[in-house]
Design a protein that fits this description.
The protein is α/β, with parallel strands linked by helices. The protein has helices spanning about 10-25, 35-45, 60-70, 85-95, 105-120, 155-165, 175-180, 190-200; strands spanning about 5-10, 30, 50-55, 55, 60, 75-80, 100, 130, 135, 140-145, 150, 170, 210-215, 220-224. Bound molecules: calcium ion. Calcium ion binds near residues 10, 11, 53, 55 and 56. Pfam families: Response_reg (PF00072), Trans_reg_C (PF00486).
């Protein structure tokens, strides 16, 4: 299968050049022009690696990376026009897998992508989250418990993975919207509806099935 890359980059000329080069190198590329679009591509799932520009028109790539790292180990290569050591260190500390300073050759980008993908495979134990009887395989994006395989829509899966990555931690509806829908203008009712459906599906798991607890006035958490 051809690896799927998210290219989050606001400079159209550079992004289009990268995209056509990467496609010729055998990757499937989804291009996002800003942080908001990038977030939805990343949380939609199915991406194997993100190439992330730090200077985006609607926010810093570092912020996007920080939010991503709280729920995901998706390989990320940061590309930046900033060569400053502080930026490079910040990027790597937040959890970038590699850092490239512009200008760089397309060949080098491809070589780095292959290296990072090789390092991130095969999926290690950390890609499986276990909460009670619930097992979330973040590499396969599948959730199951015992013999029961949960059939989840993409957003339901993303919500479940987010909750299962931090059992007991409370997430507000705004945080859920921000992380999973990549926006805060959606209605909180959307979250309520997804939580409701997820609860119904989790109820099919064998004991000890985790449950989603509503914390009144704040949000939701997954309890083992
Ligand atoms: Ca930029």
């Amino acid at each position: 299968m051809r690896p799927h890359l998210a290219l989050i980059e606001d400079e159209p000329d550079f992004a289009l050049m990268c995209r056509s080069y990467l496609e010729r190198a055998g990757f499937v590329v989804t291009w996002a022009m800003d942080a908001r679009a990038g977030k939805s591509v990343l949380y939609e799932g199915g991406v194997d690696l993100a190439v992330l520009d730090l200077g985006l028109p609607d926010g810093s790539g570092l912020e996007l990376l920080r939010a991503l790292r709280s729920t995901s180990r998706l390989p990320v290569i940061v590309v930046s026009g900033r060569a400053a050591e502080a930026d490079r260190v910040a990027g790597l500390e937040i959890g970038a897998d590699d850092y490239l300073v512009k200008p760089f050759s397309q060949r080098e980008l491809v070589a780095r992508i292959h290296a990072v993908l090789r390092r991130s495979q095969p999926p290690d134990a950390a890609t499986v989250l276990q909460v009670g009887s619930l097992r979330v395989d973040t590499a396969a994006r599948q959730a199951s418990g015992g013999e029961v395989h949960l059939v989840l829509r993409p957003k339901e899966y993303a919500l479940l993975e987010m909750l299962a990555a931090a059992p007991g931690r409370v997430f507000s509806a705004a945080q859920v919207l921000e992380r999973i829908w990549g926006s805060s203008w959606q209605q909180p009712a959307t979250v309520v509806e997804h939580v409701y459906r997820l609860r119904g599906k989790l109820a099919d798991l064998p004991p000890p099935a985790p449950r989603i607890t509503t914390v009144r006035g704040y949000g939701y958490r997954l309890d083992p």
